[in-house]
């Protein structure tokens, strides 16, 4: 009776839905039983009116001294939840990475009943992963997946809400997102030369577009416009469409893939830009071949995602403004893009020089400065339009 109401309950009570609240698309009932204890019960209805009628029916039973019989939830295991959640997650944009997290969680918790989960169990799991050398960001993705699985479990009536409340108490670890590893121009060239034939165009695209690995491996020819020189991404991490220009280096690479070669003819029946020629299916990952290329190029402490950092870093160092870089990377806000700001110190120097010129009435241009700026602008133009990483 003295229980604290959930935010969901308060929201619907404020709308005049006293005793009714939603979990996902399902309406839930909240009423006092014959003994005065609060009962929370799923109506199994998606329409408010149907749920309201059931609530009225339950309250009438209580008035007559009848305790409503609430459907009991079976004792489901984590494995059973994982199987249902994986089916549901197939429609998500991030399914490929989430599928990996589900598999790792299933390996650990397998046949453990859902009701056995609590904050201590999950926090112990966090500690174990950290001790094995996992980074906080990786552990957080796993725990976030686990939390959402239990959110769906409650919605699907596979476990009671009190179990979800236990898990929600677990706090995510503090992440260190300051790592910024990028390759020099020479390292980029060495890496390209060290790649196997199937990997070389994939790395070339990453270096010249800043696209994420998942976006590259699932790219279809329907989204590539070689005639007008752009790639259209319909499904991105932030849910927004993104257009990426194709420079001359990438155009040469894509044209060769599209036309095919004697050694690697293109399969017309395959819609994907990058696929296994023997199966016609897109590559699930390129970890092994990428690792081999790095070893051959003598590049250490580098991951595929760092190719994206390399793309952005060289744009900024070439004088491109952060807003343009943000749009090319597909960041929703400028916050993520600001990690590259320190690579453009000359912009700050120029800004203060402009202020100095205005306040102290100095000439705005020094001998030779205009020519130097033209040279810098030409470098940016070359990077964007013609001079990609070959």
Characteristic key phrases:
mainly alpha; three-stranded antiparallel beta sheet; elongated; disordered N terminus; single chain; 390 residues; 3 domains; DNA polymerase, domain 1; hpI Integrase, Chain A; 17 helices
Structure, described:
The chain has about 400 residues and is mostly helical. It folds into three domains: about 5-65, no CATH class; about 80-170, Orthogonal Bundle (DNA polymerase, domain 1); about 185-335, Intergrase catalytic core (hpI Integrase, Chain A), CATH 1.10.443. Helices cover about 50% and strands about 5% of the residues. The protein has 17 helices and six strands. The protein has helices at about 5-15, 50-65, 80-90, 95-110, 120-130, 135-155, 160-170, 185-195, 200-210, 215, 250-260, 285-295, 305-315, 320-330, 335, 345-360, 370-385, and strands at about 20-25, 25-30, 40-45, 225, 230-235, 240-245. The longest helix has 20 residues, at about 135-155.
What top-tier CATH class of the largest domain fits best? Answer: Mainly Alpha
Low-confidence stretches: 1-5, 370-386
The third-level CATH topology of the largest domain is: hpI Integrase, Chain A
Looking at the overall shape, the CATH architecture of the largest domain is Orthogonal Bundle
Helix content: 40-55%
Strand order in the largest sheet: 1-2-3
Order of helices and strands: HEEEHHHHHHHHHEEEHHHHHHH
Mean pLDDT: 84
Distance between the amino and carboxyl termini: 70 Å
DSSP strand count: 6
Any idea what the CATH superfamily of the largest domain is called? Intergrase catalytic core
- How many helical elements? 17
Number of domains: 3
Largest sheet: 3 strands, antiparallel
Content-based structural category? mainly alpha
Radius of gyration, in Å, reads 28 Å
Indicate the overall shape: elongated
